[in-house]
């Protein structure tokens, strides 16, 4: 069980609270700018955020740099050197040779003076390139607007101590890695105190209806949704401003997500079919009608978020929606967005189906501009 992540020693901080979970991978159909926006919005409103997938492999490596193995640092160094147009193929080849040589020489039990000189000379070159690779990763985090969030990011899923967990799952066909991916995905989709955050592309692949318009009540739909909040894009905030906003919004959003956790528990055994739409909407409204208006009010009254509006004449705004769909529809979305492979999806569906129907109701969030 995760501990409390209230960074400001809040006496009312709970031991557990709903986790906003973002799943992505390299080369998916989600634009990089969209994922960055999703992570920022989740960081603003969520006490706990889980960002899962190989799309974070560079950020993960930068945060984790000091404890990466030498082999992992070499991999990143080779990657950055190969991307650098100023580095010739001959220099890159020589660097690899130096690295392989030093590995062999280090294994010598009785090192000669020549061995020691070789190691020292090669290590200077290698460490210099390692530093360059680390700087490359830092620059990536700055350019992609993640750098300000690093102080509240963690990379340890077992002993997480910070609000945002960057969980890296590299593309890998080994059975152990497949099992790890399946366990992580199933946990994200199935747990009642975890809510997936996806992008607006679900509207392209699935038929959704606004739950405030009762005219369509008998029309089959893959999901129903409600506009939750609208907020200015927060990517230009600095770390201290992010922490202040998180603190100022934590109470009202914490109460709202507590009710969503209870609602997830209530609806998980209800089939998501049109004859149940009215009941699902009534349950949602009973749980959230009093709290929902307070969310937008808190956003509108936040001084730092209002400052973003005055500083930027052309301001991007994000809209966040809460929806109800099926476990099955969420998996289909991840497949169509090239986030999860068909094999992973099939295994994960089978895992969940041992406990609950994948056609039952499930809450989720989605974001658009």
Task: Explain the overall architecture.
Mean pLDDT is 87; it is low at 1-13. The chain is built from 13 helices and 9 strands. Strand 1 (19-23), helix 1 and strand 2 form a beta-alpha-beta unit. With 369 residues, the protein is an alpha/beta fold. The chain folds into 2 domains: 19-61 and 155-368, no CATH class; 65-143, no CATH class.
Terminus-to-terminus distance? 34 Å
**Strand content bin:** 5-15%
* Count of all domains: 2
> Pairing-aware structural class of the strands and helices?
alpha/beta
* Largest sheet, strands/sense/barrel: 9 strands, mixed
How is this structure best summarized?
By secondary structure, the chain is α/β, with parallel strands linked by helices. The protein contains 13 helices and 9 strands.
Summarize this structure as a short list of keywords or feature phrases:
elongated; 2 domains; 369 residues; alpha/beta
What is the strand and helix layout of this fold?
Elements: E1 19-23, H1 32-45, E2 48-52, H2 57-63, H3 70-83, H4 89-106, H5 113-143, E3 153-154, E4 164-167, H6 175-190, E5 194-199, H7 202-205, E6 208-210, E7 223-232, H8 239-267, H9 277-288, H10 292-300, H11 303-311, E8 317-326, H12 327-336, H13 342-353, E9 361-368
Parallel strand pairs: 1-2, 1-5, 2-4, 3-4, 5-9, 6-7
Antiparallel strand pairs: 7-8, 8-9
């Amino acid at each position: 069980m995760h501990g409390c992540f209230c960074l400001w020693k809040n006496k009312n901080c709970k031991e557990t609270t709903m986790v906003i979970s973002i799943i992505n991978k390299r080369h998916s159909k989600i634009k990089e700018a969209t994922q960055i926006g999703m992570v920022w919005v989740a960081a603003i409103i969520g006490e706990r955020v889980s960002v899962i997938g190989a799309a974070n492999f560079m950020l993960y490596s930068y945060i984790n740099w000091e404890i990466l193995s030498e082999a992992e640092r070499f991999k990143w160094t080779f990657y950055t050197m190969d991307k650098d147009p100023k580095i010739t193929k001959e220099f890159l080849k020589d660097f690899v040779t130096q690295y392989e040589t030093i590995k062999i020489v280090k294994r010598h039990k009785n090192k000669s003076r020549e061995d020691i000189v070789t190691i020292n000379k090669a290590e200077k070159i290698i460490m210099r390139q390692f530093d360059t690779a680390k700087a490359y990763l830092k620059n990536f985090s700055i350019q992609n607007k993640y750098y300000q969030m690093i102080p509240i990011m963690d990379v340890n899923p077992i002993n997480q101590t910070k609000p945002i967990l960057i969980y890296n799952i590299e593309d890998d066909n080994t059975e152990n890695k497949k099992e790890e991916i399946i366990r992580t995905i199933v946990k994200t989709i199935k747990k009642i105190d975890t809510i997936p955050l996806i992008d607006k592309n679900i509207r392209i692949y699935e038929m959704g209806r606004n739950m405030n318009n009762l005219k369509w009540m008998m029309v089959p739909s893959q999901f129903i949704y409600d506009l939750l909040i609208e907020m200015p894009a927060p990517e230009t905030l600095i770390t201290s401003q992010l922490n202040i906003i998180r603190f100022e919004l934590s109470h009202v959003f914490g109460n709202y997500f507590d009710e969503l956790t209870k609602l997830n528990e209530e609806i998980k055994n209800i089939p998501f079919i049109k004859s149940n739409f009215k009941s699902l909407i009534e349950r949602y409204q009973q749980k959230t009608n009093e709290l929902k208006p307070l969310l937008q009010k808190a956003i509108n009254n936040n001084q730092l978020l209002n400052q973003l509006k005055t500083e930027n004449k052309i301001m991007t705004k994000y809209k966040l929606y809460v929806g109800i769909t099926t476990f099955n529809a969420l998996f289909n979305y991840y497949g169509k967005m090239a986030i999860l492979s068909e094999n992973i999806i099939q295994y994960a569906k089978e895992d969940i189906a041992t406990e609950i129907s994948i056609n039952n109701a499930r809450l989720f969030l989605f974001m658009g501009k």
